[in-house]
Write a structure and sequence with these properties.
By secondary structure, this protein is an alpha/beta fold. It has ten helices and eight strands. The longest helix has 24 residues.
Length: about 300
């Protein structure tokens, strides 16, 4: 492990130890201040975040863009605090949660499972413990990170909430997901704002062209599972809200590329509108910026 990764690991583990102590509101405040120092003083993702918010909101003045950026940093710190403290932290009711659970229950009546479609907004890791609490089996897809220690801690936290985590780079991933949907009538959570690894068809996201991997269209077409887009947001330190959109699906065995394209685009349209309305809840810090064009 490189010196950089060793320092990163030590910082995270030390911060996590602190955040697990004391009342939640105090841990949140500590995490926020640490995140703001790392972002403002150390410059972590500062310039790239400024550029991304300016790209999506060119009409806003600098003060408003700074407000969005700094609140997004605070929200990231709040998400991390909830993650390291574990599922017991998630005790407050979530606005819209029951409606989401009702739609999942209805969708599972078809017996083909459910594809829960979300973006990197709010605390997307809340999906696991809240959806498994009524007894629904849930599965995540995650990509390996360079820092294996932190990646393993993240996976353990997600599985502690009752979910199953599958490696995005597993050559048998599709088969495993189809089996999970068919045999368990399970809920597969897909983050759709993932930049494709190579140029392909462009979709519209956040009002801009985006090269996205359409794993949703492939999985929905092969399985016939119900597709439920849900916007995940948060307000301040402890209030979360979910907004479900209408269920949709493709016929099992569907190979029509246009239908698969339209399915993903319809989900992106639903989620984009909410992200643009609540930009401070979005994760602007991803290394693989979703709107970044491929070099010719």
């Amino acid at each position: 492990m490189s010196l950089k990764l060793k320092c990163e690991t030590a910082l995270f583990l030390g911060t996590a130890w602190v955040l697990r102590r004391g009342p939640l509101f105090l841990a949140m405040r500590v995490a926020e201040q640490i995140a703001l120092v790392v972002h403002r003083v150390c410059g972590w993702r500062r310039q790239s975040t400024q550029d991304r918010i300016r790209e999506v909101f060119p009409e806003l003045n600098q003060a408003e863009r700074d407000r969005i950026r700094l609140e997004a940093v605070r929200n990231l710190a709040r998400n991390v605090t909830e993650l390291v403290r574990g599922p017991a932290t998630f005790t407050s009711p979530i606005r819209g949660e029951q409606e989401v659970l009702d739609r999942i229950c209805s969708a599972r009546e078809g017996g083909r499972g459910v594809l829960l479609i979300i973006a990197h907004s709010g605390n997307w890791d809340l999906a696991g413990p809240r959806i498994t609490s009524p007894g629904y089996p849930i599965c995540y897809v995650a990509r390996q990170q360079k820092n294996r220690i932190l990646y393993q801690r993240l996976m353990e936290s997600r599985e502690l909430g009752g979910g199953t985590v599958l490696d995005r780079d597993d050559p048998r991933l599709l088969r495993k997901l189809l089996s999970f949907l068919e045999e368990k009538n399970g809920v597969v959570t897909l983050l759709v704002d993932i930049r494709a690894r190579s140029p392909g068809e462009a979709f519209r996201f956040l009002g801009r062209p985006a090269f996205l991997a359409n794993g949703l269209g492939l999985l929905a077409g092969k399985s016939g599972a119900s597709v439920l887009p849900v916007y995940v947001g948060r307000c301040g330190r402890e209030e979360h809200f979910w907004k479900p959109f209408p269920l949709r699906s493709l016929p099992a065995g569907c190979k029509d590329k246009q239908q698969r394209h339209e399915l993903l685009q319809s989900c992106l349209d639903d989620l984009s509108g909410e992200i643009l309305s609540h930009p401070e809840c979005y994760f602007w810090f991803n290394k693989r910026w979703v709107l970044e064009p491929f070099n010719e």
